[in-house]
Amino acid sequence: MAAASNSDVTRAVHTKNSDDGNNTHNDNDHNNNNNNHNDNNHDNDKHSDNVVAAAGQDSVARLRGGVVKIFCRSVAANFLSPWQKKAQGGSTGSGLCINRAARHVLTNAHVVKNAVAVRVRRYGDSVRYTARVLCVSPQCDLALLEVADEAFWRGVTAIQLSEGMPALDSDVLALGYPMGGDNLSVTRGVVSRLDLMDYTFSPVGGERQPVIQIDAAINPGNSGGPVLDPSGCAIGVAFAGLSSGENIGFVIPGSVALFFLRGYAKCGSFRGLCSLGLRVQQTQSMALRDFQGLAAGHSDSGGNAPASRDGGVLVVDVAPLSSAAAAGLQVGDVLLSVDGVPISEDGTVTYQGRGFGERIGFDYLVSAKVEGEVLALEVLRKVQAQGTEDEIQDRAAETTKLEVRAAPLEKLVPRTAGVDAVPSYFIVGGLVFLRLTLPWLEARFGRGAQDAPADLQQKLREHKASHDEEVVVLAKVLAADVNYGYEDFSCLELLELGVHEEHASGSPLHVVHRIRSLRQLRCLVQEVLLSLPDSVRPGSPGPLLRFQLSCGYQVVLDASACKAAQSEILEQHAIRQDCSDDLLDLGRGSATA
């Protein structure tokens, strides 16, 4: 969103090694009256403030039992050394009880990220009850917990989620357990903005959803707590604050939370946010609009000259495996509307939630769809005019309607740890090959992976051409005699695997395979190694493995030497096996070129 960069927005989970600071705010700072008002206005404002304050106090007294403190112990994956885990850590956050019958508690996904043990504590209670994580969606930054113990639910009033969006400048109360103390905290504020945000704060962008900005601080530990309106209904779930701004917090709207819960109720999980898989360009330039047939005076395919069309964005890229591509959307089309909602030339639409007039990006119309639902697209497409190559002719434009079935988009480079990005690896001859993922890039090169090699950064912007396509990289080399001379090779894409050996007839045999996945690589290498006798003397004639890497580099290893050295290399580095568990079943992968 325009108000802040991703680096400024911080999660509001409290890790146990965080420094507790003095985050107490004077409520009077939020309730100062304007001295320029006359006495009557001053009295009216004061009366209004008193009414709101009284309503807020009643809501807090009635619902505070439904606001819980969450204690999480977590063990994260280690993308740099994927055969091991990181050290156990601890954190706290907040949550809200939403369904007594189902015994459900709602919180943020990042509060229970990589959880191995979760416990919750009610307001005014000393007991920490065991909770089970039922469903997690990093894209929605929401997680659903189940607390099975009946004792936990005695006397609890469930908090209702609001489907609609709040009005600007409406009063809110943020409840939770932030750093600086152990008891419930209540912060007053107002709704200051409605916008769109990628909840994962991905440096390469992701699917966006509506977000509510409030002028109440969301501090570490507040994550997952409810933000209430004066009636006691939750307008949403607190999840982030702005580190560079004072008293700026961000809230996941109740409509997004209900969307997440409906997805879980439908299939027992949340499949991810839907995307058209497009990149678009604004059409504010009159010259561009004229060229694309959006200006007045252009003829349609029937020879008519309609008035100028308002709005529309130019499609500049379509992912090959996207639902939009399957429906026939093309580069060069102008997208005019989604589900009958007109798109302006800057790519925004009027937000339909409450009709306050705010404009947000049109992509929310897609991300708000459940997988399988149909989207109606209106597209302006140029029709190629007949003529010779030397003739310069205008191309007529016609309006086309397309139906697109909403679906999440598979990424060439997986983005989210524990969802599409898992720490897979394969080791041969001390060469450590990984599947390229954003978590690995950020672990290796820092937030945003801005120092990563340019060719690997470019992969983040490319699309999958087939469902089994992956980017395989040589991450590092575990030094051994078998790989002498290659010890410093790292962070290079693997393009091809060549197997070179002498045929029984004495003629050389060369087979080259284009690498399209980590599983395929292991299958190919294992096929060669398993064909060798169990007792092989290094240096004896045998096949050579040639790994063709990016930037023209190549690694050539003796297959017999690789087989002989494998167990010693793994033992030296305390590695249990030569590959991750997801690659053990060779029968599920193809070793064909």
UniProtKB/TrEMBL annotation:
<keyword id="KW-0720">Serine protease</keyword>
<keyword id="KW-0378">Hydrolase</keyword>
<dbReference type="GO" id="GO:0004252">
    <property type="term" value="F:serine-type endopeptidase activity"/>
</dbReference>
<dbReference type="InterPro" id="IPR041517">
    <property type="entry name" value="DEGP_PDZ"/>
</dbReference>
<feature type="domain" description="PDZ">
    <location>
        <begin position="285"/>
        <end position="344"/>
    </location>
</feature>
<dbReference type="InterPro" id="IPR001940">
    <property type="entry name" value="Peptidase_S1C"/>
</dbReference>
<dbReference type="Pfam" id="PF13365">
    <property type="entry name" value="Trypsin_2"/>
</dbReference>
<dbReference type="InterPro" id="IPR001478">
    <property type="entry name" value="PDZ"/>
</dbReference>
<comment type="similarity">
    <text>Belongs to the peptidase S1C family.</text>
</comment>
<dbReference type="InterPro" id="IPR041489">
    <property type="entry name" value="PDZ_6"/>
</dbReference>
<dbReference type="InterPro" id="IPR043504">
    <property type="entry name" value="Peptidase_S1_PA_chymotrypsin"/>
</dbReference>
<keyword id="KW-0645">Protease</keyword>
<feature type="compositionally biased region" description="Basic and acidic residues">
    <location>
        <begin position="39"/>
        <end position="49"/>
    </location>
</feature>
<dbReference type="Pfam" id="PF17815">
    <property type="entry name" value="PDZ_3"/>
</dbReference>
<dbReference type="GO" id="GO:0006508">
    <property type="term" value="P:proteolysis"/>
</dbReference>
<dbReference type="InterPro" id="IPR009003">
    <property type="entry name" value="Peptidase_S1_PA"/>
</dbReference>
<feature type="compositionally biased region" description="Low complexity">
    <location>
        <begin position="20"/>
        <end position="38"/>
    </location>
</feature>
<dbReference type="Pfam" id="PF17820">
    <property type="entry name" value="PDZ_6"/>
</dbReference>
<protein>
    <recommendedName>
        <fullName>PDZ domain-containing protein</fullName>
    </recommendedName>
</protein>
<dbReference type="InterPro" id="IPR046449">
    <property type="entry name" value="DEGP_PDZ_sf"/>
</dbReference>
<dbReference type="InterPro" id="IPR036034">
    <property type="entry name" value="PDZ_sf"/>
</dbReference>
<feature type="region of interest" description="Disordered">
    <location>
        <begin position="1"/>
        <end position="49"/>
    </location>
</feature>
